[in-house]
Amino acid sequence: MSTRRIGLLGGTFDPIHMGHLDLATVAQQALQLTQVLVIPANVPPHRPKPLTSSFHRFAMVALAVAGRSGWRASDVELRHETPSYTTLTLKRFHERGYHPNELFFLIGADAFADITMWRDYPGILDRAHFAVVSRPGSPVTDLISRVPALASRMVHVTPGLELPTRPSVLLIDGATADVSSTAVRARLAAREPMDGMLDPRVQQHIEQHGLYTPPVPDRRMPNPAGAPAAGRLHGQD
What we know:
The chain is α/β, with parallel strands linked by helices. The chain has a single domain (6-183), classed as 3-Layer(aba) Sandwich (Rossmann fold), CATH 3.40.50.620. It has helices at residues 18-31, 54-65, 86-95, 109-112, 143-146, 181-189, 200-209; strands at 6-11, 35-40, 71-73, 103-108, 129-133, 154-156, 169-172. It has a seven-stranded parallel sheet, sandwiched between helices. Strand 4, helix 4 and strand 5 form a beta-alpha-beta unit. It starts with 5 loop residues before the first strand and ends in a 28-residue tail after the last helix.
């Protein structure tokens, strides 16, 4: 087994939240990952278009990983205008010289339950280890019954376990924050407290740039009839 272990955490990250960070932290510790790459998707194939630009989503990821040992933001998917299919991303890492045994695709148990619907299934499972972490309401112990066709490939990760040499589905129990990007956006839109749902630097970026928050209605009195509109020069907006 190679000593180089690269964790890949992909997602829309609209925005990145503590659930994402907890998931990767649990996997990093359980698998002794040497590096964690957090990869914002450009065009997610099965989700609506992100509310924020790729610039802001990458910036938030970069802020979230700052100071975390071995972590960095990756723009490997943002460089391509095509949909961000995981199978294509893994192929790009192979082209860079990474062996499938060195790659660990990090994913929550809730998302992995739909793996049979992913592009290039089941071949995609040979492109990397899939490190599946429990999520609130979706323990990894349920996956054997939810995806029975993959039961023979599943390995429960325990301390001191020697990892398989063949790409496998690695099941990891661990605590992760009960939060979703949808819930974060809803709270931000309602201007409700975030209660630790975001890394403080990510929350500061969101607040500074007014992301996900509807503009405050203009409470100024309307101009009297015939008066020039304030803040306009020669009719320019």
